[in-house]
Amino acid sequence: MNNIGLKQCVSTRLAFLAAGTAMSSWAPLVPFAQARTGVEAAQLGLLLLCLGIGSMLAMPVTGVLAARFGCRRVILWSGLGCCAVFPFLAIAPSAPLLGLTLFLFGAAIGTLDVSMNVQAVIVEKAHGGALMSGFHGLFSVGGIVGAGSMSAMLWLGMDIVTAALVMAAAVLLMMLAAGPHLLREAPAAERDAPLLVVPRGAVVLIGVLCMFVFLAEGAVLDWSAVMLTSVGMSGAQGGLGYAAFAVAMTIGRLNGDKIVQRWGGRRILLLGGLAAAAGFFIVVLAPSAWLALPGFVLIGCGASNIVPVLFTAAGSQQDMPAGLAVSAISTIGYAGILAGPGVIGFVAHAIGLQWAFAVLACGMLLVGLSGWSAVPAAGGDARP
Q1: Which of 170, 242, 321, 342 is most exposed, with the fewest beta carbons within 10 Å of its own?
Q2: For 126-146, how does the pLDDT look when each residue is reduced to its tens digit (9 = 90+)?
Q3: The CATH number of domain 3-191, selected from 3.40.50.150, 1.10.443.10, 1.20.1250.20, 3.90.420.10
Q4: pLDDT in tens, 268-303
Q5: How does DSSP classify residue 121?
Q6: Maximum Cα–Cα distance for the chain, whole Å?
Q7: Distance of CA 240 to CAs 162, 163, 244, Å?
Q8: Which ranges carry the Major facilitator superfamily (MFS) profile domain (predicted)?
Q9: Distance (Å, rounded) from C-alpha 372 to C-alpha 365?
Q10: Which of 323, 267, 311 is nearest to 115 (CA)?
């Protein structure tokens, strides 16, 4: 990689790190927000949905904004928006104001998410080798940094507003460090893209596969502790399932570029889908909670590089401009995160949580088998 390419790669990684840090810093604030506004659990669920709605509305138009104004402007302005809004999450005094703040924060996060992925697709193409897993790995690292740092500051007794300002300042510094070498202009073929295009061709399949993976990831986040405590693990230990999954996913992504470069995207999708499916089956069939933990590790390892490979495929397909394709699959995929808790809850109520996890296993199996054909159809993998 030449010097300019290296700088662009580092800037892209910093943008992913900043986004992951900003997003995860909100999680430790949720109990404080609930206590401050006095809402019940059901009302809190509706408020949290405002964040997702903001993201969903912002994502479809971000691709064309990045194409017309350049990734640098969109990334920096959306990152600045995250930093400006975040402290208000610590002080919003009522449910309506908290919902509005979450909506604005979600819109900024959604815009940042799509624009940095557009940048990642362009940089990876220019590099000519696999980089996407590493980019997404930095987002996962940011998730650990954000949630861990915020929790540590609050545990040490720091005022919640001060802690929020510290995290906003940290994200701002990351964005400023990334800024000088973010892409100022999109490729010429992207600049005349229409404002909105209905997803078509390979983009639809890629988006649906992303949705299934995000649904599975969201299920682990929301339901792993319930699953483990239902088979004998204490409430204090229930979070170990998601922790095992998150660590495995982060390690898998940080090492994913070398693996994708060696094996090719199609094999990663096939083997990753099979591994994640096997992990879900282990969780379902394990006779004890402790024997189920390796299943969550396997889910994290298997799923870690599927979405990065799918984003690479979105940038290589010929059915739509790359920027619009990334916007489309982000929007479709994010629907899986929003729908995940409710869908799994409904299935668990109807047939039991173990059977719901078995359905997820079958879904990941289908992702692996479908992905084998999806990536070549998108032109994202030339390896046999």
Answers
A1: 342
A2: 887 889 999 999 998 998 898
A3: 1.20.1250.20
A4: 999 999 999 999 999 999 888 888 899 999 999 999
A5: H
A6: 58
A7: 29, 26, 6
A8: 1-379
A9: 11
A10: 323
